[in-house]
What does this fold into?
Amino acid sequence: MNDLYRVLTAEGLKLKRTLALRLAICGPMIIVLLVFGMYAERGEKIGGTNPLTGFAQLILTIWTIIMFPLYAALVAALIAAIEHQSENWKHLLALPVDRVTIFAAKWITGAGLLLFSSLVLSAGVSVAAEILRLMKPAWSSSPLPFAMIFRSALLSFCAAGFLFSIQMWISLRWRNFLPGLVVAVIALVLMFIAIPRGVAFFGSLFPWSLPAMAMAPHNPYRLIAVGLGLLGGAVVGAIGCWDLSRREFC
Amino acid sequence: MNDPFAIETRGLTRTFGSCTAVDGIDLRVPRGTIYGFLGPNGAGKTTTIRLLLGLLRPNSGSILLNGELLTQKRRELMRGIGALVETPSLYPHLTGQENLEVTRRILNLPRSRVADALAFTGLTADAHRVVRAYSLGMRQRLGLALAWLGQPGLMMLDEPANGLDPAGIRELRGHLRQFAHDQNVTVFLSSHVLNEIEQVADWIAIINHGRLLFQGKLQDLQRYHAPLKVVTDRSSDAAAVLKAKGWRVLENSGDVVELQISCDTDVAVMNRCLLEHGIQVYRLERRQETLEDLFLRLVSTSEQESSR
It folds into this structure.
């Protein structure tokens, strides 16, 4: 455990000045600002009866269905690139630490970034909604479901564990970022084909559709999606760490 | 820890597909020495170092570090090893100080080690610049600092002089001597810059096509592998007799025959052979050769043998 903590603190330092860290803040904030701009400009027309809840749900939907799977692939690729780019594996893997610990720390760092971005998104939505409330006096009585925002973001994050583990494994295994990107894009296309056709149960098993399932409050497969995301993430993560620890990186 | 060798390999072999990069080598690196590991490009030096660090797995053979099998105690053994393999492993977006801090955290070393390593390699003034802005020489020095950070008992340095200017090379020489002679660190130094090795190494090994051609003290290389000059009364007859008896005659000019003899016993046998054929031997001496001459001779002989 001490080893893991030490490697994690080193991984944290490696994130300094990286695109991965900047994206963890900028990624969710771009979505928030985009939808905020729409509501600030045309809120009265698109707001409906409960405009601030609609505002929050629109952001969460865009983030969870489109952005999050791509963002998870990007985070995995950027974290792996820190070692791949300068061929640092030869130094890292020659240190007196179990290799599984080194790869597990990478996984945890990536998951930490995803969690951080989910929290940034939730906080961003809440702050932007309060600003909208100040800008539009007619919305002053519109309730803002803070609990729903944070719960949806966190459940989506948990459900994304499965897809993130797959992306992380691919990114660490191959130096080239293309395999990870190709998998992410194909998976997204498959998800968009599967969900509208009502393949609900298939959807709840498909790693890339799990975050969307987990976000929808009335989805009967919501808890299955969260459980499968966590379990799948842990199993794939464990197999990935074991596989990578046996590989020769030089 | 009482083993006389910091590194010992037995029949170490590693292949990549049909190519044998390291072919059954038996290294013996005495403790507290600077051990020069020489070979032309592609000879198998870096593969050997990667095997010694456990980054690659051998197809056969074993590796003992300080008398312990690497496969059994990798983690404990790695604690005593600092390495610089080819280009230094650095994070270009971090500063020099942060690069060392990453490794310090993993090794759980006192914070003061970072400042010590920076000072030792003369990088204190540039410690807070990002490595992306470092020159090649500065990166190489930071790589050396990284290898030295954990105060290892064994340092494996692969071409550490790459990118260094003459002043940097001289400084590196000083560091290596300081490691070995003041701190009793064993330095396993791989290079193809013969002049560098000649100036610092106590022991050397020469490798080509993955095979170990020589291993021993530098003086022994000179003593056993420099051609033997035989001054006789009839050099043409002497050359003919020696060739007929299967000796490798390299040159025959004037009253001197030069031949390749590695073993002292063979010198006596050869001398007796000439006397039995009525040829007077006036003098036997080794030709004085530089490490470069000896290296090139050994390598070209091995090239000829492998092309046969």
